Hints:
The protein is mostly helical and 155 residues long. The protein contains two helices and no strands. It has one domain (3-154).
Amino acid sequence: MNATLIIQIVVFLTFVWFTKSFVWPPIVKALDERAKKIADGLAAADKAKADLANAEKKSVEELRAARESAAELRSGAEKQAAKLVEDARAEANRIVAAAREAATNEAAAAAQKAKDALRDQVAQLAVAGAERILRREINAQVHADLLANLKQELS
């Protein structure tokens, strides 16, 4: 062994000590920081993936709830429409019945009026006939009473 080898071993050991003391710690520190950043990024990605899954689940649930709500609203609207139609039919039937009753009453009143007019005419004809038969003047007041009695009897 010669002195060159010993000097090279001393230089090499000094180089190893220098590298281990001054160069290696910043490199390890940088690698640790990089590993921590990568781990944080992966954790954030996992959290984002979980959040996305939760958001998708929540959106599916809200969509289902919205569909159910829409179905309930549609059902309520259909029931309300059916009730309105039924109410309109009942109102129309009531109006038709009232119109029919009014027409019946009007027809009965017109028939009664026609009967009264006919009785008056019959009474006047009877008086005219009796006057012609008797060929004399009839007292109007006496015969008006007779006509009233005749009307009562014809009723």
